[in-house]
Amino acid sequence: MVFHRMLTVLFFSCLALTIAYLYKQNYPPMSAPIADPGMASRHAIVVGSGLAGLSAASQLISRNIPVRLLERGAKPGGNSIKASSGINGAPTTYQPVAEPLDAFYNDTTRSAGHAMSSFTAQREKLIETLTKNSAAGVEWLVQEKGVDLSRVAQLGGHSYARTHRGAGQAPPGFAIVSALLKQLKESPLFDLRTSCTVTKVLQDGAHVTGVAYAREDGKQEELHGPVIFASGGFGGDAEGLLAKYRPDLAGYPSTNDPRPGTQPLLTAIGAQLIDMDQVQVHPTGFVDPANAATPLKFLGAEVLRGEGGILLLNGKRFVDELDTREKVSNAITTTTPSSESPKQWTVQVVLDEGTYQAAKSHIDFYLFKGLMKKSTIAELGPQALESITQYAKVVAGEATDEFHRTTFANWTLKNPTPESVVYVGVVTPVVHFTMGGVLINVKSEVLGEDEKPIKGLWGAGEVTGGVHGGNRLGGSSLLECVVFGRIAGDQCADYLAGGK
Asked: Is the per-residue pLDDT at 4 higher than 60?
């Protein structure tokens, strides 16, 4: 056992060092400048180096448009590089069960909930664009970028398995972002500038003409050209936008690094906001036993529940674990928290051996980080055995689930005993994603208060709003980045080709 643990620690230590080395080698703080100075006046500016920004940049470069990408962080990747569950796509050849063409659209509108009652036509068009382009987005990553997305799981709120990830050790976000960054770095048309914070959007009349930004050394510079904003959400802006629009979430831990939202840069030039009060609280952020009070949490991937895992509160199941994130989180937060600073609950995510094998790369990483542990049912508390025994009967078809869960994926434990091996981690609801942002249309154009496009400006990813409504489905964040990032890139290329 000790020798096995030593090998496990050695393996993940080597894996982490290898990833860090490759990341440093392939993605230095700044790349070389654009090789052809004659093209500099016809370049596009992308703000943000998460998947939305990288997808836009890839599309622009495929159209032979030079790209200058500004990233305020020290390294590229944004939150996308941390994404752990996967990317949605339907219909694809990797799905284990074929689904009706409108199933993904229907799941997304159902998840959006009450938000569909306003801006209904715009939302329907955005959701249609998202879902109808999902299969093409997955194929683009697989065929053109070389990303493995062969594993598919069914996450909460989905009626079919459609969330794709790879079969290897690397999380899907890291695998996707790394592939795009590597390919972009090989192009002389790509210029990445990190530690550069945009401070103003420049205009000439009604047209956006560039941005002003501050370098790490404090020097102010300007870039001129059409602009794609892919700068992320405001989930880490606890004292600013989050406090303004959702003061009730004060004290909640978050999966987002502390940083201000960028939406005010766009409202300063007349961009319209939508759904700013729609903030996703994810039900499973890990409570690290080594630092339980930290407000920054590591996300427990939804795939843990998608592959068959369950949630226990005081030893009892209390919800359909595959309901939407909103409903699962609400089922937790209506109970008394175990801590007020930060505001968190003590919920156990529990997996059996079958679920462990299905999500092995994820769980092994969490075990290595100390966020989960291999345990027995007896160690989970006095009521856990009864709860897990009842769940096993439901999985076996011997009972009906009182919470109406209907899919159990890879749970295989049939006759639980106190000595049965399980894998467990403590989780709590966390601020994870902001559905609100600047309003865009199906061309990714940022809309003004008059709902007309602001010329020379596009948006993609979490900086935008209107796509997800009141709740985002797991796997649709990376998808949104790819779909609307590519659209923004193409539209910006057309804009430049038209002599703008």
From this structure: no
